[in-house]
Amino acid sequence: MGLKIKYFLFMPFLVLFTTQQNIKYACFDGTKDAILPSPALKKVTAQGALSCALECSQTDGCRSWNYFKTRNIENCELNTLKAINTDILVRHEGGMYYEDAKEEMDCNNLDGSGIFHINIKGFGTKEVYCDSGWLVVMRRYDNTMNFNRNWAEYKHGFGDPRLQFWMGNEALHALTNQGNYSMLVDMLSCNGNYYYVKWNEFRIQNETMKYAVDALSLESYNTTSVFKLDEIFGRPFGTTDNMKTTSYLNISKTCAEQHGGGWWFARCTYNHPTGYYPDCNNPGVVSERKSKMKFAAITGYNCDFGCLLQAATVKLRPNN
Q1: Tens digits of residue pLDDT in 33-72
Q2: Which DSSP string corresponds to 3-45?
Q3: How far apart are alpha carbons 138 and 202 in whole angstroms?
Q4: Rounded alpha-carbon distances, angstroms, from residue 6 to 22, 31, 33, 37, 86
């Protein structure tokens, strides 16, 4: 964090017992000589660190707090976010940063970007990559990671969440069914431009239902069209070893075999970030481009060079 602290757990657990103010307990992890540079939910004058902890435990939405002195004033800043790691804290001599020890169900209350362990309802603990409140489900940016995987690999996930990966459909199902989630797809086209599409509702069913998409609602986008942005609604997930729908380009092959990767195939797909990775310097003819990593909504039905993708990230975030 630019701050070299030898001791990160200055006060590992601060436990407060008080029945007079209707508080059973509050548990915080702390870091000395550091604060979180986040806009404060509330700023109050404290009478010591314990007083600040009590204030946080009594304030709705407080997830962390900074305690520090300026001259003779004891300051208490209550925050709505927690630091994803100590790297984003800033050095403050004599200051103390504390965060509640509650397990997170997603990345929504975390400040910063990096690896974090969350506890998904109905699934359990999962190592994920958080990006400023968004939980990254998929990241892809070159052809060194093979996305043409079988059902089991897409079910459990593959790759490194720090690099290129797929989160796993079991975890994705549990995540999208523990609350209402938005989905964001960020893309870098072969033409060098950045695009995005955001849906304010996204949910999938369980494995028995082939992880079919049963909730999808478009919110915003900067693509040139909305062509097929709803095509995955109601569609089951498919891989080369677990689907029967044939490709309109080649009826001897399934959609997954023709287009590569696992996805919610219709017949077959126009928007496909897990498809065969394209060569942006040699995109090929139209029929070849249609079976690559692409997002046709960028350019429309014809899917010219600009619809091919050299990078894409899929993210989820709960709707507050």
Answers
A1: 999 998 889 998 888 888 888 888 889 889 999 999 988 8
A2: ---S-S-SSS-----BTTTTB----EEEEEEEE--S--SEEEE
A3: 15
A4: 37, 10, 11, 20, 12
Structure tokens at 44: 């109050």
* Coil, strand or helix at 263: strand
Write the burial class of residue 63 (CB in 10 Å: 0-12 exposed, 13-18 middle, 19+ buried): buried
DSSP E strands in 180-269: the ranges are: 181-189, 194-204, 213-221, 237-238, 263-264
The tokens 């693509």 sit on which residue? 223
CA–CA dist 228, 226 (Å, integer)? 6
The predicted model scores a pTM of 0.86
Render pLDDT for 249-289 as a digit per residue (tens, 0 to 9): 556 678 888 888 999 988 788 899 999 999 988 877 766 76
- 237 located within any domain: yes
Contacts of 198 (CB under 8 A, 6+ apart): 182, 183, 184, 185, 218, 219, 220, 221
Structure-token pair, residue 254: 């399934």
Q: Residue 80 in contact with residue 63, Cβ under 8 Å?
A: yes
Q: Which amino acid is at 278?
A: P
Cβ(112)–Cβ(83) under 8 Å?
A: yes
Q: How far apart are CA 94 and CA 292, in angstroms?
A: 55
For the residues of 121-140, what is the DSSP string, one character each?
A: TTTEEEEEEEETTEEEEEEE
DSSP summary character for residue 259: H
* Domain shared by 246 and 118, yes or no: yes
Whether residues 204 and 74 fall in one domain: no
Phi-psi region of 131 (alpha: psi -120 to 50; beta: other; left: phi over 0): beta
Task: Give the pair of three-digit tokens for residue 94.
Answer: 């004599």
**Judgement on whether residues 91 and 141 belong to the same structural domain of the protein:** no
Domain count, the chain: 2
Which residues, other chains included, contact 314 with Cβ-Cβ below 8 Å and sequence gap of 6+?
Answer: 136, 137, 138, 139, 183, 184, 185, 273
